[in-house]
């Protein structure tokens, strides 16, 4: 295969086993995720094979995404001696992730202890065109010898979750059967608690000059591993091709029928095509996705490549065809956060899909709608009304947050986020309106979205408590976005989003009653909505307490925050990340003004139209000096707001922090999976920050960009109300072209209103 231009390539030049590369080089198509391990599977690697939505709890603290058997194993033996790269001299090594094509390329040139030199070169991909398929193709050349080669292909069911954490290690499946069949080898499993069936079939062939060339084929059942072996009389200098196709099918899929038959029939179907044909079809799907999602930054090579890396993983993770799964905080690239879905999806990732792949965005919101009954039950269980969405969600919509974890010193601590980090319910309502506003998808609003917004408003109405003495409504004992501080009263972000949710629900009821009375009547009957409720919501919203000091224009993160001991960040590490100020005790963070991530600043972004420019600047300046960015969610928001308040130097610094989160592993935990929210935050910082895209109250798209000094131009595309716009921004000019036409649209470009 021919690799793309250098700007599209993420390269590894030194042979090493690295959890960071396993994550960064992971491949997924929204259905299957495969970590970027080597085909040989070395002992220090963490194989990870995941199917979206296949969760299980058996033996674990909470329900988690299951690490399935590894289907991509390949090893080579010379005269029946294992060619182990770890015991060879590495003459040449290269691994390259081609972002444009969605392909992982590898080249190994090895010299063993007998002086034999072998070159292995090829690629693998998880098909974007055929969601159940993984393709591997490699060429093997015996450079200075002839010998009998054994090509061993295997499916490995020794995998477990939390491989390196003894307290959490668990195997979530039982092996049902293994067999050698006409087209290859097969391994079937059953997930212990959920009883999902997952079937894996693989077929391997070895060719010379397009002709099968093995003189012997045999299989071995090794308990948890099944292998398919091919023996070849290899001649010096000849190029032998290894092609392996693997198919994964789960009983979660719609209309799957007999899982074994479906799996093996798909394999037979794919075998009728060459690896090159399957690769071509796969690349064509990526072309369609990149056609809208690509961003070009001219003049800044590092920023340009890192942005493409972020977007690659975003476009790879989505599956518009499944409305019962969403995106976990670590994607399908690792087991971090157990594969759970947080607010990360709706607030950080969803905007990317809303503006580049609306069908994927709708599917993710439908995941929330399909779990709305579970959210109602969650609220009822906790003594509230309406719908309370869980802080961590898997497949049932129940709360999946672990009760215990570890602090920065390794001490066991109680995790309270699942109990009192309530703001996610408003975040989801916000995402619904964000989607509808950008797409004009009224059918979604009428049939699904309005119910989410009204039921979350009911939750806020029931959790707000009236303080008669102070004449205000309060929300006490919460955790806001900043998770350093627990059991807070009147967190500004939480209270303001609750207020927004209540007012938006009331406003929506009026809209439905006026324009869509039949829908409103049907919905009202379904959820027993009274005529009085919208007025009650307005009353509560008008009296919700926001800790704000109008004389200073300063928003207090929560009531009493300004009374805490104050530290200001003064030092930064080699990755330009904040260093803990001297004197800070890491097990007493609740006592300091230092914060984990954007909280008040997050509010300034989401509800920016509520605050004037001076308020934004004052609060940005105050909280930026106290934010440790210990969540990857944080730098992107400071980059975006930094542009808007004129702190452009700091904006660029924070932008590079978020763009390089995984490539530089600046959070120190990339091995656990991709920082999916940071991917989405990077895109938002570019488009809504440097690109200057924002929405004014009168539904006009405002464009007011600013470019860093070294950037010559910024190019991106977005869908807006059914129209596809291409933007090319330079320091002196904004060029807008409409590729897909639905109707005339008003834009305001650098203060000047235009109609396109």
Automatic annotation (TrEMBL):
Q: Which family does it belong to?
A: Belongs to the glycosyl hydrolase 65 family.
Query: Mind telling me what this protein is named?
Result: Glycoside hydrolase family 65 protein
Which residue ranges does the record assign to the Glycoside hydrolase family 65 N-terminal domain? 17-252
Annotated ranges, domain Glycoside hydrolase family 65 C-terminal: 697-755
Record's Pfam families? Glyco_hydro_65C, Glyco_hydro_65m, Glyco_hydro_65N
Under Gene Ontology molecular function, one entry of this record is: hydrolase activity
Location of the Glycoside hydrolase family 65 central catalytic domain: 308-684
Which key words tag this protein in UniProt?
Glycosyltransferase, Hydrolase, Transferase
Gene3D superfamilies linked? 1.50.10.10, Glycoside hydrolase, family 65, N-terminal domain (2.70.98.40), Maltose phosphorylase, domain 3 (2.60.420.10)
**Native species of this protein?**
Caldicellulosiruptor naganoensis
What taxonomic lineage is listed for the species of origin? Bacteria, Bacillati, Bacillota, Bacillota incertae sedis, Caldicellulosiruptorales
Under the heading InterPro entries, the entry gives: 6-hairpin_glycosidase_sf, 6hp_glycosidase-like_sf, Gal_mutarotase_sf_dom, GH65_N, Glyco_hydro_65_C, Glyco_hydro_65_M, Glyco_hydro_65_N, Malt_Pase/Glycosyl_Hdrlase
* Domain of life of the native organism: Bacteria
């Amino acid at each position: 295969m021919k690799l793309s231009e250098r700007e599209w390539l993420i390269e590894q030049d030194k042979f090493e086993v690295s959890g960071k590369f396993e994550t960064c080089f992971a491949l997924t198509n929204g259905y299957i995720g495969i970590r970027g391990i080597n085909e040989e599977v070395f002992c220090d690697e963490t194989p990870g094979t995941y199917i979206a939505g296949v969760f299980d709890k058996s033996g674990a603290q909470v329900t988690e995404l299951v690490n399935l058997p590894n289907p991509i194993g390949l090893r080579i033996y010379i005269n029946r001696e294992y060619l182990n790269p770890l015991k060879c001299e590495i003459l040449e090594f290269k691994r390259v992730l081609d972002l444009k094509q969605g392909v992982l390329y590898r080249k190994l040139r090895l010299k063993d202890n007998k002086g034999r030199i072998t070159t292995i070169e090829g690629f693998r991909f998880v098909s974007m065109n055929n969601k159940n398929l993984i393709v591997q193709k490699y060429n093997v050349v015996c450079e200075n010898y002839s010998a009998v080669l054994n090509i061993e292909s295997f499916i490995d069911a020794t995998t477990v979750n939390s491989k390196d954490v003894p307290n959490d290690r668990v195997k979530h499946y039982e092996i049902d059967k293994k067999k050698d069949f006409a087209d290859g080898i097969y391994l079937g499993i059953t997930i212990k608690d959920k009883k999902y069936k997952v079937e894996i079939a693989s077929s391997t062939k070895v060719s010379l000059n397009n002709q099968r060339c093995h003189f012997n084929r045999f299989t071995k059942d090794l308990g948890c591993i099944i292998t398919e072996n091919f023996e070849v009389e290899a001649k010096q200098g000849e190029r032998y091709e290894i092609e392996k196709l693997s198919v994964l099918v789960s009983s979660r899929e719609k209309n799957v029928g007999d899982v074994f038959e479906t799996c093996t029939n798909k394999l037979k179907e794919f075998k009728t095509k060459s690896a090159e044909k399957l690769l071509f079809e796969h690349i064509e799907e990526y072309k369609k996705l990149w056609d809208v999602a690509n961003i070009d930054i001219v003049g800044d090579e590092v920023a340009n490549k890192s942005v493409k890396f972020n977007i690659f993983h975003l476009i790879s993770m989505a599956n518009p065809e499944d409305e019962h799964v969403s995106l976990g905080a670590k994607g399908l690239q690792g087991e971090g956060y157990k594969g759970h879905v947080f607010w990360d999806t709706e607030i950080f990732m969803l905007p990317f899909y809303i503006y580049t792949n609306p069908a994927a965005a709708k599917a993710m919101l439908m995941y929330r709608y399909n779990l709305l009954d579970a959210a109602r039950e969650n609220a009822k269980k906790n003594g509230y009304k309406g719908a309370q969405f869980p802080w961590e969600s898997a497949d049932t919509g129940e709360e999946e947050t672990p009760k215990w974890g570890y602090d920065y010193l390794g001490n066991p601590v109680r995790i309270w986020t699942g109990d009192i980090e309530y703001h996610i319910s408003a975040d989801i309502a916000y995402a619904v309106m964000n989607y509808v506003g950008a797409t004009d998808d009224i059918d979604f609003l009428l049939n699904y979205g309005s119910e989410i917004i009204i039921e979350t408003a009911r939750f806020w109405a029931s959790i707000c408590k009236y303080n008669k003495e102070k004449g205000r409504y309060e929300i006490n004992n919460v955790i806001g976005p900043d998770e350093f501080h627990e059991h807070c009263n009147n967190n500004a972000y939480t209270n303001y989003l609750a207020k927004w949710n209540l007012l938006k629900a009331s406003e929506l009821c009026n809209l439905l009653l006026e324009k869509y009375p039949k829908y409103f009547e049907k919905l009202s009957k379904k959820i027993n909505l009274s005529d009085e409720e919208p007025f009650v919501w307005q009353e509560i919203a008008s009296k919700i307490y926001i800790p704000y000091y109008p004389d200073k224009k300063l928003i207090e993160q929560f009531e009493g925050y300004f009374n805490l001991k104050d530290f200001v960040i003064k030092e930064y590490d080699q990755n330009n990340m904040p260093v803990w100020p001297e004197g800070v005790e890491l097990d007493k963070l609740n006592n300091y003004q230092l914060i984990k991530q954007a909280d008040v600043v997050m509010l300034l972004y989401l509800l920016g139209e509520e605050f004037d420019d001076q308020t934004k600047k004052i609060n940005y300046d105050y909280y930026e000096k106290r934010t440790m960015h210990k969540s990857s969610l944080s730098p992107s928001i400071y980059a975006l707001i930094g542009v808007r308040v004129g702190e452009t130097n700091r904006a660029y610094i924070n932008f590079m922090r978020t763009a390089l989160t995984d490539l530089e592993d600046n959070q120190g935990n990339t091995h656990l999976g991709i920082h999916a929210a940071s991917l989405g935050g990077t895109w938002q910082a570019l488009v809504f920050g440097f690109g200057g895209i924002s929405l004014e109250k009168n539904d006009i798209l405002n464009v007011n960009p600013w470019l860093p000094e070294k950037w010559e131009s910024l190019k991106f595309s977005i869908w807006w109300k059914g129209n596809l716009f291409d933007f090319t921004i330079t320091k002196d000019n904004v060029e807008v072209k409409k590729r897909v036409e639905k109707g005339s649209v008003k834009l305001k470009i650098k203060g000047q209103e235009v109609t396109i």
